[in-house]
Amino acid sequence: MIVGIDIGGTNTQGVLIDRGNLKSTFSVAGNEPGHVIRCSKFLQNKAASKTVRLALTGGGARKIKNSDLPVPFRVVDEINAIGSGGVYLSGKLGVFVVSIGTGTAFVSVKHGKARHVGGTGVGGGTIYGLARLMLKMPLSKVEEIAKTGENLDLTVKDIMGRGIGKIPGNATASNFGKAAGKCSKPAIAASLLNMIAESIGVMAYFAARSVGQQHHILVCGRVAMNGVVKNRITETIRMLGGDAGIPPKAEYCAAIGAALTMEK
Questions:
Q1: pLDDT in tens, 159-174
Q2: Domain span at residue 39?
Q3: What are phi and psi of 179, to 5 degrees?
Q4: What is the pLDDT of residues 15-30, one digit of tens each?
Q5: 230 and 137 part of one domain
C-alpha cells in the first residue's frame, strides 16, 4: 500500500492506494509538517497494519525533512504527479490537466508522459486573498453567499444588445463592470468567483488548444470542487469550443499521481 500526500500552498491532501485502487482520502487545512504527519497517520491507520510506503509531492514537499515523519518517504515531481493523477481520474492516456491549487498549472499528458505547458498565478490563493481583502470573510463563506445574489459583471448583451461571433449575449464582457457605489457582499462574492473561474477557463482552453487537447481537458484541485467555480470554468471552456470535465475526487489528483508513481 502507498500513501500519497500533496502538500500545497494552503492545504494538504492525502490518499491511500492499494495496487492501483483508491482506498481512502484525507484533507486538512494547512501545509506544515504537523499537518502532513496528521494526514499520514490517518491514512496509515486505514491500511490496517499492512506495510505502507509514503510519497510526497507539491510545493510544500521540499520543506519536509526525514526527521519530520516516522517513515521514510520519496518526493515525486509535481508535474509527473499531476499527470499521473489526471490519467487515473480520466481513464485516458491523453489528457490536459488544469490543476488549480494556490495558483494554476497546465499539464499535457500524451501517451502517459506529462509535460508542463505553463500556468497562471490566478488560482485558489487569489480567491482566498481577495475574499479577505474585499469581503473580510473566509473562503468557505464566499461560495455560500455567492449563490444568493446576482453578480456585478457586465455582459456582452449589455454592451452589444446581442451575442457576437461565437460568444453568446450572456457571456461576461467585463468582470465587475457594473460595480458602482455600495455593493452587496453576495454580489461581490459572485463576481469574484466568476472572475477567477472565467480567467482560468479562458487560459486553460487556449493552452490546451496549443497542444491539440482542447477536447480533453480535465479540471482538478480543491477549488474545482467549488460549485460556482466548477460551473463557470466548464461553461467558459465549452463556450470557446472545448470540452472539460471535473471528476469525483478531483482535489486529490496530485496525491493520487504521487502514490501511483511509486508503484512504477
A1: 888 888 888 898 999 9
A2: 2-81+253-263
A3: -65, 130
A4: 999 989 999 999 998 8
A5: yes
